[in-house]
Task: inverse folding
């Protein structure tokens, strides 16, 4: 039996990751499973979104553990399906209240080990690059355009070290951008299924 393919959709806030994952799942059906964003699950469940150093550390540790366990549970349950992960474990490093590499040390892992969890990375550049609002109706999104740009750059710096990193740049047309991202997802899935 083939190992479950894991594709992470990541990028700065307001890039279209969640939209692309949902559309792809709706189109393909039971061939894929979307692993929801752990941060949103925890924030809507009561974890603090803001706070001092210790609060942010505790929250990022929780997000990391929920993310890894969600992925592992879905992979075990849906062994023949492709996992589309709405963000991945590396994302926590840029939200960590100290240096990104401190995040990996704190969690007893490395950037390299976390990158190996995924077969491919599809990076959706934030709409903030074009000066477009990133709000999108998500009440958990609190970043300004400037903060979104900074997060996007930091995330790209880390994730681009993956050997199968795919960059989906911002476009003035959100629909065109999401369609381009969907084409990349389809290409990666097709490549995995043909192995």
Result:
């Amino acid at each position: 039996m083939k190992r479950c393919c894991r594709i992470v959709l990541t990028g700065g806030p307001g890039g279209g990751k969640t939209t692309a994952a949902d559309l792809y799942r709706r189109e393909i059906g039971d061939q894929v499973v979307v692993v929801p964003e752990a941060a949103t699950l925890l924030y809507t469940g009561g974890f603090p979104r803001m706070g001092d150093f210790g609060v942010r550390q505790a929250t990022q540790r929780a997000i990391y553990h929920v993310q890894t366990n969600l992925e592992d549970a879905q992979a075990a349950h849906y062994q023949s399906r492709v996992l589309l992960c709405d963000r991945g474990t590396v994302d926590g490093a840029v939200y960590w209240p100290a240096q990104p590499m401190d995040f990996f040390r704190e969690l007893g892992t490395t950037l390299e080990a976390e990158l190996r969890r995924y077969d491919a990375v599809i990076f959706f550049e934030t709409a903030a690059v074009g000066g477009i609002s990133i709000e999108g109706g998500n009440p958990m999104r609190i970043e300004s355009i400037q903060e979104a740009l900074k997060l996007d750059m930091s995330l790209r710096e880390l994730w681009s070290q993956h050997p199968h990193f795919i960059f989906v740049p911002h476009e003035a047309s959100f629909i065109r951008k999401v369609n381009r991202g969907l084409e990349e997802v389809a290409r990666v899935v097709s490549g995995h299924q043909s192995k």
In short: Residues 136 and 188 are 27 Å apart (CA to CA).
